[in-house]
Amino acid sequence: MKTFNYILAFLMLSYGAFAQDFSSSQEMPCSAEARNFAVGEKLTYTVFYNWGLLWIAAGEVTFEVKLEGDEFHYLCYGYTFPKYDKIFKVRDYYESRTDTTTLLPNHFKREVEEGKYVRFDSIAFNQSNYTIKEYFGGSRSSAKEHNFTLNHCAHDMLSIIYSLRTFDVTALDSGDKMPMDVFFDKELFTLDLKYSGLERKKIKNLGKYDVRIFSPTLITGNVFTEEAVMNIYISDDKNKIPLLIESPVSVGAVKAVLSGYEGLKYPFAQSF
Fold it and tell me: Do the beta carbons of residue 120 and residue 110 sit within 8 Å?
C-alpha cells in the first residue's frame, strides 16, 4: 500500500497548479520572476483516511523553506501518527536545494519508508548542460549511479512547488490543461493538470475560502482506479497554497487538509 506516498507526491505537485497556460508544444520556463513565498514559511497538512463512515487522521506532512548561502533549502517530512505505525508506518523525508534566482534545483534527496517499501533517491542537476546524476536504490548503501541527459531544464518534486507558485493565474480558463514535468525515480514524469474554475469552499477547521480547483492525471493501479478524480483546492490569493486535496482510492478515500501555517509572505484570511 503506497497511498500515503501518492498523496504526499500530489500534495507537492499541487503547489504548482498555478502554472502558466502551457501547451504541449511549449517548454516549461527555466527561470522565475516573483516570489510568492518567504524564508521561514512552514505549512502543515493532516492526512485523513476514510474507513467506512469515519474519517481517521492518520498522519501529517510538513513543508519548510530555509535559506543557506546562495541556495533555497526546501524540506518536507511525512509520517503516520504513532498509534497507526503498527498498521502501516510511514517516515518520509524530502529535501531540495535550488538556485535563489532561477529556482531551479541543484540537488534533490528523498528517503522513503512506508511499511516494507523503502527507497533512497539522490539527484544532482547540472542545469547548464541539462545532465542529471542520480543515485537510486532501496537504501543509501545499495543505491546505484545512473546518468541522464535531457533537452531542457528540469525540476524535482519539491522545486516545482515553489517555482510554479510564481506564475500568474489570471489567464486561466476552465478546462485548460497544463503539463507538469518532474524528474525522479530515474524518469521524467509529465502530469496534466486540468483547471476547473473558482468556487468558495469550506475547509475543515479553517473556514470558508475562495479556491481554484485543479485535477491532476492519476496513475491507475493498486492505489487509484480508472474512474478516480483527485481535486486540489488552491487558495485564490498571492500565497497560492493548497488548502485541501481529496481523492477516492482503490479502497476508501484519502484527503489532506491544511492544519497549520506560519511565515507566509502575504496575509491569509477567510472569505466571507
Answer: yes
Beta bridge partners of 253: 248
Q: What length does the chain have?
A: 272
In the chain the beta strands, taken as DSSP E runs, fall at 42-51, 54-68, 71-80, 90-99, 105-114, 117-126, 131-137, 144-149, 177-184, 187-203, 207-216, 231-235, 242-248, 253-262
Write out the residue range of the structural domain in which residue 79 sits.
3-262
Could you give the C-alpha distances from 1 to 94, 118, 141, in angstroms and in order?
A: 20, 12, 24
- List, for residues 213-231, the tens digit of each pLDDT value: 887 765 444 333 444 467 8
Report helix, strand or coil for 84: helix
Domain count, the chain: 1
Could you give the CA distance from residue 108 to residue 218 in angstroms, rounded to a whole number?
Answer: 23
Q: What is the DSSP letter of 229?
A: -
| Dist. CA 14–CA 9, nearest whole Å | 9
The pLDDT value recorded for residue 66 is 97
Residue 271 placed within a domain: no
- Asked whether residue 268 is assigned to any structural domain, the reply reads no
Rounded Cα distance, 242 and 112, in Å: 23
Among residues 113, 101, 98, which one has the least CA distance to residue 157?
Answer: 98
pLDDT bin (cut points 50, 70, 90) of residue 7 is low
In a domain, 29, yes or no: yes
- Mean pLDDT across the chain: 81
d(C-alpha 24, C-alpha 151), whole Å: 15
Q: Is position 244 within any domain?
A: yes
